[in-house]
Design brief:
Shape: globular
Strand order of the largest sheet: 1-8-7-6-4-2-3-14
Domain Orn/Lys/Arg decarboxylase C-terminal: 411-471
Strand content: 5-15%
Domain Orn/Lys/Arg decarboxylases family 1 pyridoxal-P attachment site: 3-351
Structural class: alpha+beta
Largest sheet: 8 strands, mixed
Keywords: Decarboxylase, Lyase, Pyridoxal phosphate
Cofactor: pyridoxal 5'-phosphate
Protein name: Amino acid decarboxylase
Radius of gyration: 24 Å
CATH topology of the largest domain: Aspartate Aminotransferase, domain 2
Helix content: 25-40%
CATH superfamily of the largest domain: Type I PLP-dependent aspartate aminotransferase-like (Major domain)
CATH architecture of the largest domain: 3-Layer(aba) Sandwich
């Protein structure tokens, strides 16, 4: 791309901005540099869908860097990778074993394939209330119950950097002749330092989707799909990607993937080595403020085995600020977080975060503590921790490890005649709405899922203990919307 740019050629091809000549209204200063290399499939620049030159070489270098046998560039984020994998291994009516708390792209992939999901509920960390990963024995139960399943799809790590050792699950899936597919959107940096978790590929996964733009340095929407072994048919995956990705892929995004790969390979280990002590000190200093809880790997936890130090999850231990309020306070001080939930704020660090960034965050949190008078009350903190642990044990005891019946996903989900029935009388009907209890934020019912007696009992139990519910039209959960024309068999 750089060589072509230096040739100063005349463009008689798309795109219409002609290397940035069509910029007006002050946009030049923002876009001129990128649009100057915003090319298309012209001679010398290769073709993503039939790579034979520079793109092929870049993908080969990426495979070597990340430990794959073959790597494919994605210009539609991890979303398109998940869609391609699911539609490559599943057809109408096929079963896929899926972690219940997955990204919406997995659900969309199931819809495109017309596949059925067998959901396995993950564990819940008692102290934080955050949902983590599944247990090997629960995946084993699902595989024993549904030997016809086409594979297992898990998310690891979760948004907050908590994960599991995938090695035993990979061995289990392979013993059953099934591929292990991993949505590793938040783990592209794993494996580049001994103090970081192992990558899913290293643990034996067959296909891994990574958002190179999230934790490494590619442009937004830049991602990679890594493949190894022969269980997943690579030609089918490539055919699905040709269908799902644009026929006019972004060359700046692809170039940024190549540059991100090079940065990770050449400087990744040293950058991580330099960053880890600074991050540890930042965590320590925030903890010394005494009014914040900072999530970290704890030896006593059984809900997750691995933890990403580049994810900083903070909660106000005094109870004065919920996660959304704390996020707003940080934004007022120029620190913009990745996301917030009812309890926490998630801040994402990276290999190129600076000591100035860390200091600005610390000063913002210290100023919030003073201006909002967040005084640490030991008695109140112990009461809240005890209450949270009790509540999280209640929610986890009913949710963790459960294996659902197959749930059919089609493009017609959300359509059809519905009616409202009381929760106590909903057994045997097919749910027409999603029901998500908070905490811990795991969908307990998906549209299209059969409402069982056990599910009703669990919803009643959660309501009794004060859970809040997102999704249902009736927030009190006395009634559920069900499909009239889709009764259970």
């Amino acid at each position: 791309m750089a060589e072509h740019h230096l040739q100063r050629t005349a463009s008689f091809h798309v795109p219409g901005h002609k290397s940035g000549q069509g910029l007006y209204g002050g946009a030049e200063s923002f876009f001129a540099g990128v649009l100057a290399i915003d090319y298309t499939e012209i001679t010398g620049l290769d073709d993503l869908h039939r790579p034979s030159g520079a793109i092929k070489e870049a993908q080969s270098l990426a495979a070597e860097c990340f430990g794959a046998e073959e790597t494919l560039f994605l210009i539609g984020g991890s979303t398109v990778g998940n869609l391609a994998l699911i539609t490559a291994i599943c057809g109408p009516g096929d079963i896929l074993i899926v972690q219940r708390n997955v990204h919406k792209s997995v659900l969309h992939g199931l819809m495109l394939a017309g596949a059925r999901a067998v959901f396995v509920s993950p564990r819940c960390d008692e102290q934080s209330g955050l949902v983590t990963g599944v247990r090997t024995e629960d995946i084993d139960q699902a595989l024993q119950r549904y030997p016809e399943a086409k594979g297992v799809l898990l998310t690891n790590p979760n948004y907050y950097g908590m994960g599991i050792d995938l090695t035993p699950i990979a061995k289990l899936a392979h013993a059953h002749g099934k591929p292990l597919l991993i949505d590793e959107a938040h783990g592209a940096h794993f494996g580049f330092h001994p103090d970081l978790p192992s990558s899913a590929l290293k643990c034996g996964a067959d296909a891994v989707v990574q958002s190179t733009h999230k934790m490494l340095t590619a442009m937004t929407m830049g991602a990679m799909l890594h493949l190894q072994g022969d269980i997943v048919d690579r030609d089918t995956v490539k055919q699905r990607l040709a269908m799902l990705q644009s026929s006019s892929p972004s060359y700046p995004i692809m170039a940024s993937l190549d540059l991100a790969r090079r940065e990770a390979a050449v400087n990744g280990p040293s950058r991580i080595e330099a960053a880890l002590p600074d991050i540890a000190r930042l965590r320590e200093r925030i903890g010394e403020l005494e009014c914040y809880d900072v999530a970290a790997r704890r030896p006593e936890t059984t809900a997750y085995e691995t933890f990403d130090p580049f994810k900083l999850t903070i909660a106000d231990r005094t109870g004065m600020l919920n996660g959304f309020m704390l996020q707003e306070e940080l934004e007022q001080r120029g620190c913009f977080a990745e996301m917030a939930d009812t309890e926490h704020v998630l801040l994402v660090l990276s290999l190129v975060s600076t000591s100035q960034d860390y200091e600005r965050l610390y000063e913002a949190l210290a100023d919030i503590a003073i201006s909002r008078n967040l005084r640490n009350n030991a008695e109140e903190r112990l009461r809240r921790i005890g209450s949270n642990n009790r509540d999280n044990r209640v929610w986890a005891s009913g949710l963790s490890g459960s294996v659902s019946e197959p749930v059919l996903f089609t493009m017609t989900i959300g359509q059809g005649q519905v009616e409202t029935v009381s929760l106590e009388e909903a057994e045997g009907w097919i749910s027409a709405e999603m029901v998500i209890p908070y905490p811990p934020g795991i969908p307990l019912l998906y549209p299209g899922e059969r409402i069982t007696d056990a599910c009703i009992a669990e919803l009643l139990r959660l309501a009794k203990f004060g859970a809040r519910f997102q999704g249902p039209a009736d927030k009190s959960l006395r009634y559920l919307r069900v499909y009239v024309d889709r009764p259970a068999d």
